[in-house]
Amino acid sequence: MVRYLILTFLFFNNLAYSDEELEITAEQFTYDKDNTRIYATGDVKIVDEKFKLSADKVFLNNTSNVLSARDNVTIFNSDGSILKAEKIVADQELRNAIIEKNFLYLPSNPFKDKKNYLRFAAERVERRGESWEMLQNGVFTACEICFNKKTGRYDDPLVQLRAKKIIHDKKSLNVKYYDTFVDFKGKSVFYLPYFSHASPLVKRKAGFISPSFIQNHYFGFAADVPYYIPIDDYQDITIKPKFSQKKNPVLFIEHRKNFLKGEIFSEFSGTIENNKKENGIKEDKKRGHFKSTGSFDLNKSSYVDFQVHRTADRHYLNTYKYGYQDTLTSFLKLNSHRHSNFYSLESYLFQELRQDVNRKIIPKIFPRFRLNLNSEKKMNLLNFETNLEIINLKRNEGNETKKFFVNQNIFYPTIFSDGTMINFGAHLNAGIFHIKKYHNPKTGKFKHSEFKSNFYPQISVELTKPYVKHTEKYKTIIKPKFMYLKTSPKAFNREIPDESNVNNFYLDYFDLFNRNRLSGLYRADSLDRFDYGLSFLKQTNSTKKFSRIGLAQSYHFDNHKFLPTNSGINDKFSDFLANVEISPVDSLNLSFYLSLDKNDFSIKNAYSTLMLNIEKTFLTLRNINAPAVLDNSGKNLIEAKNQFNLSIEQKFSEYWSFTTSSTFDKKNKIKFHDINAKIKYEDECLGFSFNWSRQYTHMPENPTSNSFQFLFSLKEIMENDI
After folding, report:
1. Is 270 in contact with 286 (CB distance < 8 Å)?
2. I want to staple 568 with a disulfide (CB 3.0 to 4.6 A). Which of 53, 411, 426, 575 is the partner?
3. Is the pLDDT reported for residue 241 higher than 90?
4. Cβ-proximal residues to 700 (8 Å cutoff; 6+ apart), any chain
5. What are phi and psi of 601, to 5 degrees?
6. How confident is the model at residue 16 (pLDDT cuts 50, 70, 90)?
7. Cα(259)–Cα(263) distance, rounded to whole angstroms?
8. How do strand 467-470 and strand 474-486 relate by DSSP bridges?
9. CA dihedral sign, ordered 215, 622, 508, 519
């Protein structure tokens, strides 16, 4: 007959805490009369707050605080790690121990939703407190170990490290290897007399990051060699020098810091170029850039955002591949919200980098105050919305304007029992303007300084009525929508400078039912109009796959005189606007936003996306097709556009994939912006990728460049985002 006994006893140690209890179960116990020494055999289990130990034989000496276990020893720790060993001699907290022929499994981040462990094995392990461990004849791998049914044994891991001695220093958070072999599928391919990497306990460690390489006419062959430095738990620095054949080195520094209620992200770069003049004399040219962004919470409802972004010259960011933008924006924003109300105090400074834009006409904004007040939205009651803006806009050349503008909206939405919804709206718009150095296009006169005011009311009525039909397989919704707007000729007041650049306006599907289809508060549609449209949705009940079609048009009671001639709303009848979305199966998605000529139904403007997934092939094709924007005289304001973006990802197997993408314009001929290709291998422990990118910037310093990058990732040893 098998006997089970549960024995609870106290042990004492030299630590600050004491009187901890161990719960022991076993088939048989032998112990002395003072219960100071206990010998347990047969399915022994010891349970502590921090671990659970099972073995065939366990010896406990309560006087010396020694625990000895052997034969089928398994320890489950509270951190999720699992230790299996032939023999262990340790104190009863397992902080100091000698472990023979052990296997240690450390839980790691899941790979593709599968539970994964890091694996250590050693002939002997010596553990000293919580700060130091030494493994003799140790092996480490992060790879899965698979059982081979043909051979009846476990295969060797894909990659593993074998070392005569491995020391895990938990204070310095380093793992050091001595006399190390790197094995690939059980065969040694590389030897290192000494090797070290960050401890699995550390999240960040100083060291080099995989370099990237570039080749072009400007630099010749160049390389970025980044080095990462964690300063503390809340901030770090990345130093990324660029070395090249033809130019002096460039220093790039990136700094990140988290605060209790905010964060700052900053970057700086700089170099001195030695340029030769026509007479052969060298001239030093200082080039660089600075960018810093931050966000801080002042309290639960208020926060401040800022950005400083400047560069030394127009071409630097593009030439050195540091994130070129057409316009660099620096700002300071103090924002607050209370319930449905929003307040903002802002200031803006811009740096224009485009070659064909006069920098002197770029505005500076200081200050800009915005207020948005909203009542609670309820049906069958009056709803209020107040928008107020105060702005001071200055320029080195061109008009300067100070504006105070208020927009008051009052809505009364109501819904009937059959689903019909009507929304009545009354809108009051008023502003006072102080204008300097403005050439009035209406009078043809130049004014150095004058005050202007403007006031115009508007009335709107919106109506929608959905028709819904349910069948066994489908749900169908047909919804007509109508909107009538009564406005005033003063809504488009040309005696007030246009800062929203309505000359670039082109009607699209999202604009149609907006009360003000122009950007900004100061100018709006000055013609009475009637908008009407119809949407159709068909959706399966089982898979929720759908098709959606929308078609709409606008009728104006007069003709626009001052918008671009092909804006889509110059005549009484606007162009037709269509929205088509089709997703019949998981593998196919099509979407189109179209503008159709009202006379011949030809496509004038189109935003199209095709997404296709066939087994292991993923294809995405996007196209923007837009006509040129013309002024009243027929002059081009914005060139026509026919731009494509193509992306293809092909998975060859579970671990191998290939991705390529390109952005290009197609007019008379193809004009490439970039071509990219990437081949990648990634499993649960090992990964590498090769990236190639060719950019066509069409800039004078660096019209074309090739970039290369090879990334290698060995889990828990040298990880990269491949």
Report:
1. yes
2. 575
3. yes
4. 315
5. 60, 20
6. very low
7. 6
8. antiparallel
9. negative
